[in-house]
Amino acid sequence: MALPRKILVGVQFYPEAVLTPGSRTAVEQGVAIARASKGSLTLLHANVADEFWDAESDRLACVEATTRSQCEAALEGILDAVPFHEVPVRISVAQERADHAIIREVLKEDIELVVVGCRSRTDAHALPIGSVSRRLVHHCPCLVWVVKSEIERLPRSVLVGTDLSPVGTRAIETALSVARASNAKLHVAHAFQLPFDVQRAGGSSVSRYERGARDAARDSIAKTLEQLGGYPRARIHVARTSPAALLLEAERRFEIELTVLGTVSRGGLPGLILGNTAERLLDRLRNSILAVKPADFVCALDA
Questions:
Q1: Could you tell me where the DSSP H helices lie in 154-201?
Q2: Does the pLDDT value for residue 135 go beyond 80?
Q3: What is the CATH number of domain 157-302?
Q4: Does domain 6-147 correspond to CATH entry 3.40.50.620?
Q5: How far apart are CA 238 and CA 9, in angstroms?
Q6: Count of CB atoms within 10 A of residue 183's CB?
Q7: Cβ–Cβ under 8 Å, residues 133 and 103
Q8: pTM of the predicted structure, to 2 decimals
């Protein structure tokens, strides 16, 4: 799998038509990816009333919709302020809710990757993603890269979680393409827990099950990496714990810059992370997140 070549960046402005910090980083991240893949970039702004975090007053503030010409002028201004360096760029202004506008553009233009930035306070220990980013993670049919840190290049350390399912394989393939593009370290993580009957049996049953589960998971992941062409900078981590705990610990321990997660349906993340754990993890991960959809994903706007 190659890096995406058709990339869309969702951008927001302060009332003075100045890019929010999260949007600026998202634009620069999008440029880095497009340059590496020799792709093209679309900058999209949804021209509707919206909220942003005002760092000076430490509260949410509202920005009203402006005229289309003002939006286009602001987007054109980005072209002068960001070093695009021969990356083809086009601009788009939509008159609807941002996530709907982005998804419609993805479907219309066959966009392969959407990049959006966090708009929360930048001094937080872990930045919560906004409502637009969250809806895109759940509903957008292509890859969604949520930029949570001020990195303006491809990551040098990538973490991917897998539940050993087909979407887990897609997540590994995506993480591998990003890692190869920047010669990054790749960490592949899988968590397992003891079945109830093993817990009840206790004693040697527990140790036997753990050894078998670890060996089977490591073999499965190693085989997947080999089938994808191999990667000498890949490390495999298998642990008896919760998926969220494993990913959070790996992010801290290995100084991860991007975590790749597979998604399972219109409304949630997969067997890797179940139910409400997914929502908590999206906000607790400190660095950027790349959400991968399964092959049979159906977009709500296209259903």
A1: 166-182, 196-201
A2: yes
A3: 3.40.50.620
A4: yes
A5: 34
A6: 10
A7: no
A8: 0.85
